[in-house]
Structure formats: C-alpha cells, structure tokens
Amino acid sequence: MQTKVEIKKRLEYLRKEIKAERISYGETAELQSLIPHIDPGDVLLLEWAGVAEGNLERLAGRSDLKSPFPYPPRRVKVPAHSFFVLL
C-alpha cells in the first residue's frame, strides 16, 4: 500500500511524462489505477486516465467511487491466426 506522499509524487512524475510526450502504456494503466487519488480539477491527468468529461462531476468528493467509467471494459477475442496489416 502506497502512502499519500508516494502517490502524489508518482502522479507528478506521470504528469511530467505526459508533458514530455513519453508516457508508456504501462504508465497509462498505472494512472488509471490511481484515479481515486487524482484531484477532480486536474483535467490533464483525468483525461489521460480516460475519465469521460461527463464523469468528472461524479468524482468530486467521492472516494468511494469504484470506477468513473460508465461501462465495464469490453473484452475482444482475437483468433491466434489473425494478423493486422498496417497501411
């Protein structure tokens, strides 16, 4: 379990990575796990965490909120033999 100070430092690190345009997919996933700790007025981090604009009001003062996303994530099955072509 991380302390509030560690979480705040980590959020500041992730903010610097976003501004430097070098945030990784793993760091984006970490940012999503830290949504309950992000200040509701911090639009930059909330947008990068994938919080929809309409859900920002739900976050204000709600530490009991489990997920700010309106729907559960969709799982897509891709056959092992499929491939993608980049144009």
Label the overall shape.
Answer: globular
Q: Structural class per helix/strand content?
A: mainly alpha
Number of strands: 0
Rounded to the nearest angstrom, the distance between the terminal CA atoms is: 44 Å
| Sequence stretches where pLDDT stays below 50 over 5 or more residues | none
Beta-strand fraction estimate: under 5%
Helix content: 40-55%
Largest sheet entry: none
H/E element string? HHHH
Radius of gyration of CA atoms, rounded to a whole number? 16 Å
On the 0-100 scale, what is the average pLDDT? 77
Quickly count the helices: 4
Descriptive tags:
0% strand, 40% helix, mainly alpha, 87 residues, 4 helices, single chain
Descriptive report:
The protein has a domain at 4-59. The model has no long low-confidence stretch (mean pLDDT 77). The longest helix is centred in the first third of the chain and has 16 residues, at 4-19. With 87 residues, it is mainly α. The termini are far apart. It has helices at residues 4-19, 25-33, 43-48, 56-59.
What does the secondary structure layout of this molecule look like, with pairings?
Elements (H helix, E strand, L loop, with lengths): L3 H16 L5 H9 L9 H6 L7 H4 L28
Short description:
With 87 residues, the protein is mainly α. It has helices spanning 4-19, 25-33, 43-48, 56-59.
